[in-house]
């Protein structure tokens, strides 16, 4: 077997495995049950697995178009790249989306601002275009509102007013809803039949809606204009090396500030016993150290890193004291850590600092607009 054949088998095998895991994950979201029995719950079978293709096919199609957007533009720029590596992930004991995404590996050193721009922008715009098609189909072909009773037959006793009763008394984390962004809100308002729209907490059971929403979510993460994310490549090309070295860390600090806003409040320390106080203080210390690790690559000077970390924490506490109702989205903290600690905040420097053409500038600012349309301040509402 030749090395090329082994490579194709690896990429193809990972894709097929990811197709299976995303299909299983999609079925679990659709039916609200798992394939592996937990606490006597009725498990899913073959029929539900087949139904899961309604999620996995559109979702993987968007992901694949995104990655091949990078691939073909890289090849057009004579940059050697691999085929996409798909990353399957299915835990079996809890709901996932069946994958950690996909990536291509660039095998050449890129020394051109234009090449970074072209390769970086191709994936998000290509995937975004297909996501629009999926979302249009999802919201223009919603099933009758009674469809939700096939998933939750216990709701029938309340009729279509189930939203007023079904979520009372649920344990923490017992309900998951999809947050809003500008584009998702547009489709719900202007494309969907209002009479067929389910309660926000039930949209996870609609496979095309979920696939399109997740596509917007991951597009927005990719387009965050920091480091070596696609958005970082785009902004680096648009504003140049010197400006990006200041803008990227500033945006990262703002992102981290928002993610952790409200995670700890001054009132959290007003507890009845010393034991509770020291417990809360210990969690707070872990949070501060967590942020320090996330900021560790923002400067080579450790004291500067500590100064930034403590300034962010102090400002978060101040705003939480001033406006206790202001809260960020702690779910972003994991991505803050991965971005700051592993992916990096800064962009690799290029010797060729060619000016951007008018067409590239328009496309670049279009990508910024796409980011604003897709970004959800609170993408998943867990209650």
Structural descriptors:
383 residues, mainly alpha, two-stranded antiparallel ribbon, two-stranded antiparallel sheet, 13 helices, 4 strands, globular, EGY1-like, Membrane-associated protease RseP (Regulator of RpoE activity), protease
Please tally the helical runs, counting DSSP H or I stretches of 4 or more residues: 13
Average pLDDT rating: 93
Physical arrangement of strands within the biggest beta sheet: 1-2
* Percent helix: 55-70%
Please state the oligomeric state of the protein chains shown. single chain
Class per helix and strand makeup: mainly alpha
Number of domains: 2
Radius of gyration: 23 Å
Distance between the termini: 53 Å
Global geometry = globular
N to C succession of SSEs: HHHEEHHEHHHHHHHHE
Largest sheet: 2 strands, antiparallel
Low-confidence stretches: none
By DSSP, the count of extended strands is 4
Range of strand content = under 5%
């Amino acid at each position: 077997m030749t090395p090329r054949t082994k490579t194709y088998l690896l990429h193809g095998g990972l894709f097929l495995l990811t197709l299976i895991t995303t299909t299983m994950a999609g079925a679990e979201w659709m039916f609200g049950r798992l394939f592996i029995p937990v606490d006597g719950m009725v498990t899913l079978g073959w029929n539900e697995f087949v139904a899961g293709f309604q999620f996995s096919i559109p979702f993987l199609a968007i992901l694949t178009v995104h990655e091949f957007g990078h691939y073909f533009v890289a090849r057009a720029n004579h940059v050697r790249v691999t085929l996409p590596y798909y990353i399957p992930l299915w835990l079996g004991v809890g709901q996932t989306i069946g994958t950690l995404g996909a990536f291509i590996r660039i095998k050449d050193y890129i020394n051109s601002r234009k090449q970074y721009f072209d390769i970086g922008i191709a994936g998000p715009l290509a995937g975004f275009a297909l996501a629009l098609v999926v979302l249009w189909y999802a919201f223009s072909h919603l099933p009758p509102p009674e469809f939700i009773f096939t998933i939750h037959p216990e709701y029938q006793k309340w009729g279509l007013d189930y939203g007023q009763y079904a979520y009372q008394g649920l344990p923490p984390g017992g309900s998951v809803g999809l947050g809003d962004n500008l584009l998702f809100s547009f489709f719900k308002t202007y494309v969907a039949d209002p009479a067929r729209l389910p309660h926000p907490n039930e949209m996870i059971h609609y496979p095309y809606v979920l696939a399109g929403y997740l596509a917007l979510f991951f597009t927005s993460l990719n387009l965050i204009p920091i480091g070596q994310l696609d958005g970082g490549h785009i902004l680096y090309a648009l504003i140049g090396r010197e400006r990006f070295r200041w803008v990227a860390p500033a945006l990262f600090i703002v992102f981290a500030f928002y993610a952790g806003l409200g995670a700890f409040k001054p009132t959290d320390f007003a507890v009845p016993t010393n034991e509770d106080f020291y417990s809360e203080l210990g969690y707070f210390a872990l949070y501060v150290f967590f942020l320090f690790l996330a900021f560790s690559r923002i400067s080579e000077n450790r004291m500067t890193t500590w100064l930034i970390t403590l300034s962010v924490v102090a400002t978060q506490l101040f705003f939480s004291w001033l406006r206790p109702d202001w809260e960020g989205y702690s779910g972003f903290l994991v991505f803050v850590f991965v971005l700051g600690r592993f992916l990096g905040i800064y962009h690799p420097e290029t010797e060729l600092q060619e000016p951007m053409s008018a067409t590239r500038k328009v496309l670049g600012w279009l990508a910024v607009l796409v980011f604003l349309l897709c970004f959800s301040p609170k993408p998943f509402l867990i209650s």
